[in-house]
Amino acid sequence: MLKIVTICGCGMGSSVILKINTEKILKELKVPAKVEVSDVTTGKGAAREADLIIIGKELANLVKDINKPVIVLDSFVDKREISEKLKQYLKSANILEEKS
Length: 100
Description:
By secondary structure, the chain is of the alpha/beta class.
């Protein structure tokens, strides 16, 4: 099962919204995953255990030294952006097949 960590400043607001949106998209795509939230303080530790990190552009530099795939978002509430970037990652990781 894919493990995803969403990171925001406090781990209680934006990352929770992002978690909910990510789970909805993954459910639609029928991709099993565990999505966890984290704040910037504990985010680096949580990110090391994850398969994928999703973070806003303003905090992306916090995980630049972690050797894990990172999706950097302009907006945590833009479902289209989340969906497009998540699908791109899932296809590149051979988790989601390309549809002809």
